[in-house]
Amino acid sequence: MVAHDQAENASFITRLMSGAGTADGLVALLRQSLPVYEALEDACRSVGADPRLSAILDPRLDRTEALRADLATHAAQGRACSTVVPTVEAYVSELRACVADPAALIGHHYVRYLGDLSGGQIIKTMVRRHYGIEDGLSFYEFDIDKPKVYKDAYRSALDALPLSESDRESALAAASRAFELNHRVFLDLEAAGIR
């Protein structure tokens, strides 16, 4: 998927992962993530009983409280970010609109949480290695013993969701938009001079 490749290879994230960024860049990324996860998790709670997605919802995936705790930890260490880039507002609006289209929420849920369970683990390892950060990384920590087994079970549950063809199209389109929005967040951070 082109949108996925663009997001994964954006210069902001590749710089952060290679050690050419800064710890402040990580904090800025966490700051952008907070309103996105607040909106995603609010939407999931609003439509959580809908059988089209109830089987993939799991409170162990929720990230809002971990993000708040991480940002407080970084602020206590003198690293804070008040900037919220414009794309985050568009992202939040899209997630709020998913309450009216729960099938679209499936695409966003998949991209965010499976990304956190996969690439997020790599980000955590790399920022520890490059920037010496040990605290303020609970966003990347899940109460899940075997992430690979969990991800496989998630994908199986996803495949078994009772979706119509139009639901599937809506979920796939939303997943593509989620990757695109993530890429645009990285571009906005880059444009803001955040490294």
From TrEMBL:
The UniProt keyword set, sorted, is:
Heme, Iron, Metal-binding
Protein's UniProt keywords contain Heme: yes
Which amino acids does the record list as binding heme b? 4, 110, 155
Source organism, top-level taxon: Bacteria
Give the matching CDD domains.
HemeO
Q: Where is the signal peptide?
A: none
Can you cite a GO biological process for this protein? heme catabolic process
Q: Which Gene3D superfamilies match?
A: Heme oxygenase-like
Membrane-crossing residues? none
Q: Name one GO molecular function term.
A: heme binding
List, alphabetically, the InterPro entries matched.
Haem_Oase, Haem_Oase-like, Haem_Oase-like_multi-hlx
Q: What is this protein called?
A: Heme oxygenase
Tell me the lineage of the source organism. Answer: Bacteria, Bacillati, Actinomycetota, Actinomycetes, Mycobacteriales
